[in-house]
Amino acid sequence: MEKKMADGIVHIEIPVKDLEITPKFYSAVFGWELTPVPDNDYVLFTADGAGISGAFVKPEIYQIGGCVGYIQTKNLEESLKLIEEKGGTTQTERQEVGDAGWFALFTDPDGNPMGLWENHKLRTLRVFYNQYPNL
């Protein structure tokens, strides 16, 4: 039987209280490009080369603190330091996940939980997942 390619995440929306503060936090920490949508409570973001984009939205239809997304970084500890400097809060320190890499959790200035992921230098997360063919 041929394995069907899974549908992937193509866009995420992060609910925020302030469309000025929190988008600028993500831009300062991760280098995301921001594009405010005129006459709308919506700020688009793109992460150069990451293959995913999204928007910051006012929480009229969403609640702050929903799902946890993971942001890939080349240096997890440097990212955690920058998160703290820019108004976020570290929730967990760097933790190893076998030989796949490391993760840590943080909250942004609005209290949204988010994760960080750093690949092991010799592997990628995809190689790690390939060990588990039923996923």
The gist of it:
The protein is an alpha+beta fold.
General description of the model:
The protein has 135 residues and is an alpha+beta fold. It has one domain (11-129): 2,3-Dihydroxybiphenyl 1,2-Dioxygenase, domain 1, CATH 3.10.180. It is built from 3 helices and 9 strands. The strands form 2 sheets. Strands 5, 6, 7, 8 and 9 form a 5-stranded mixed beta sheet that branches. It has a 4-stranded mixed beta sheet with strand order 1-4-3-2, with helices on one face. The longest helix has 10 residues, at 21-30. The chain starts with 10 loop residues before the first strand and ends in a 6-residue tail after the last helix.
Q: Characteristics of this structure?
A:
single chain, 135 residues, 2,3-Dihydroxybiphenyl 1,2-Dioxygenase, domain 1, four-stranded mixed beta sheet, 31% strand, globular
CATH homologous superfamily assignment: 2,3-Dihydroxybiphenyl 1,2-Dioxygenase, domain 1
Poorly predicted tracts of residues: none
H/E element sequence: EHEEEEHEEEEH
Shape: globular
Percent helix range: 10-25%
What name does CATH use for the topology? Answer: 2,3-Dihydroxybiphenyl 1,2-Dioxygenase, domain 1
Please give the largest β-sheet. 5 strands, mixed
Rg from alpha-carbon coordinates: 16 Å
- The CATH class label is Alpha Beta
CATH architecture: Roll
Helix run count: 3
Topology:
Elements: E1 11-15, H1 21-30, E2 33-36, E3 42-46, E4 53-57, E5 69-72, H2 76-85, E6 89-90, E7 95-97, E8 101-107, E9 113-119, H3 125-129
